[in-house]
Each structure stands twice: as structure tokens, then as C-alpha cells.
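Lab notebook: predicted structure, single chain.

Context: the supervisor wants predicted structures on file for every construct in the current expression panel, including those that have not yet been purified. This is the next one on the list. No modifications to the sequence; it matches the entry in the shared construct table.
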Amino acid sequence: MTPEIFQAISGYRFKQTDLLEQALTHRSFSRSHNNERLEFLGDSVLSLVISQHIYQQFPQADEGDLSRMRALLVKEKTLAEVARHIELGEFIRLGGGELKSGGFRRDSILSDVLEAIIGAIYLDSDFEQARLAVLQLYRHQLENLPDIQSLKDPKTRLQELLQSQQSELPVYDVVQTVGKAHDQTFTVKCLVPEYSIETSGKGSSRKKAEQVAAELALKEISA
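Prediction complete. Output recorded below exactly as produced.
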């Protein structure tokens, strides 16, 4: 990727082209001159930019809501989506093994490279320029943010619904655990006294099983 191409994508033009080159270099290509340190820096810059943006966009949101929104935007899957949108995979410098195995399509590699580029922009300029570049790269995601309430997990939504009605809170009970310690499946029952609803959910952990059961209870309540 040339500085000109990146400028067309993000609106930012690199002055130090070696920083852009390093950001695009995976460890499999070079052990001594790769993007791992830039990725570390970019992760922090991205988190601050997104935190500042959603803090300003959602003045009524509490800390928990803001944390969930930030987690959605900075997680690996979202980073990879942004990277694919700008066809970043075509420009990543990979070693032979990673190239053959399709590393340029892998979420983990795409997300790491994007974070490295953000870190490189910060070093090449300043925080304000990095902020503007991130907002440009994330333009689609930021224009299509989901409703904050939808980001809450089912257990939280069920509890808040019942609390708003001043109803008795749900009761969860593990009714079955099968499998060996490292590979167990839990079955959890969720009882909602106010609605005489009883659901059950399965998952690889008690927490996951509880979430499934809570989701089913919410569906029954809204049916």
C-alpha cells in the first residue's frame, strides 16, 4: 500500500513511509521489523478515540452502556470488518506459511494490522490526526450503531424488565452437568415467578446456559 492509496482510503497521508510499511508487516514476514509494537500502541489509541466519540454521542448513557458499545466497536470482528472494507488484506506482508494458509483473510491478522496502522498514524503525526483517521475508517460502523439496549445480555435485560415492574427477580438453577471437567455442558433452569414461566438453556458454562434460558424467558414474556 502506498501513502497515496492510504490517503484516498482514510484521508491521512503518511510522511514516514517506513511506518506504514512496518504496520503492514506481520511477524511471519520479519521477526525483527514487524507490526507488533505498533499494534500495542494502536490498540490504546483506538480505544481512546472510540471512547471519546461514544461519550459525546450518547450523553445519557451510563458507564455500563458505554463499555458495551466500545467493546462492540473495538473487538476483533469489527476491526476485521473495517480492514476488509478497505481491502487491507491485499497489502499485508506475510511469510510464506501464512500466505499459503490464507492469513490475509484471517480476522486476527486483519485486526492486528489495522491497529498497527492506527498506532503508526499516531507516531507519524499526533492524536488529533489519528482521531480523524479512525473516525473516517469507522465511518460506516459509527453511522450504523445499534440501539444501546440491544447490547445488554439477556440476563441483564430480563432483570431490568422485572425490576421496572417491581416484580420478583428470576431464579436460576443448574439442573444437569454432563461431560468431563474440560468439556462440560450445563443445563440451567430459569424460573420467572411473576409470569409463571420456566425455561431451560444449555451451554458450555453455567453463565452461557443462564443467558440462553434468560433469552427464552424474554421471548415468552413478549409473546
